[in-house]
Amino acid sequence: MSGYLEGYGAGEAEREKKIRWILLSALAVSVVSGILYFLFRDYKEEKQISRFLEVLSRQDYKAAYTFWGCSEQTPCRDYPYSAFLDDWGPKGVNAKFSAGKLAGSERCGTGLVASVAAGGEQLALWVERSNGVVSYAPWQNCPERKLRLMKWLRMKFGRG
User: Which residue would you say has higher pLDDT here, 63 or 109?
Assistant: First the structure.
């Protein structure tokens, strides 16, 4: 009769181990997914700014003008190609930013405010999320009230 109750509860302990492993795995996947989402959710818009700066550094101004949703054949009504060259051309006001880099970004409404840094100065550019069109940002920082946790962390631990 000694073998009758020997295995009592062994199946229950094994089942508890499996349930614990499944729950911890699901929690780990959720945490990693959340972190990856917040790190890469603006990747497309930040890449658009980087490509714009890269095209400017190659001095391909016609291609750079297309990032603004315009072309030389169909110029923008309020920003003709000549004005673009006055701003971004070799002797333009913002020519120094063609060698700049993305210093930071912030989601705002339907787009992204990207800060481009060059020579100790910063310029705010806007990227519309729906179509990737680049333009001047109406503000240096987004006026929406929001928790700016990532900006605070960058300030405390570097990169900003």
Answer: 63
